[in-house]
Specification:
about 100 residues; 2 helices; flat
Length: about 100
């Protein structure tokens, strides 16, 4: 990251290495990520990893929409569904590998 340049797209864009690293640490801890208007103000994107039996990330799933679609607690509902689905996919993949 030493050679990275950071360009601001919206007031929410992360624009320096230390903040990116801090954000990545949070993403790893919580096992999901969000772009909450950081690239395009009106857009919200959320993603969660799919893990293999060794606990390594092999894929991810995500949802995105307009900020207005995530108002009034809907963001939390979509996030909960996303996390539940990513865990179910991971469990399904891993249960079939054990056979």
């Amino acid at each position: 990251m030493a050679d990275c340049t950071f360009k601001r797209f919206t007031p929410r864009t992360i624009t320096n290495k230390d903040d990116v690293l801090e954000h990545l640490k949070l993403v790893k801890e919580q096992d999901w990520a969000i772009d909450d208007g950081e690239d395009i103000e009106e857009i919200c994107c959320m993603a969660a990893p799919i893990f293999n039996q060794d606990g390594k990330v092999i894929a991810a799933i995500g949802v995105n929409g307009m900020q207005s679609q995530y108002a009034n607690g809907k963001k939390e509902k979509h996030l909960a569904s996303l996390i539940k689905t990513s865990k179910a996919i991971s469990d399904h993949i891993n249960s079939h590998r054990a056979e």
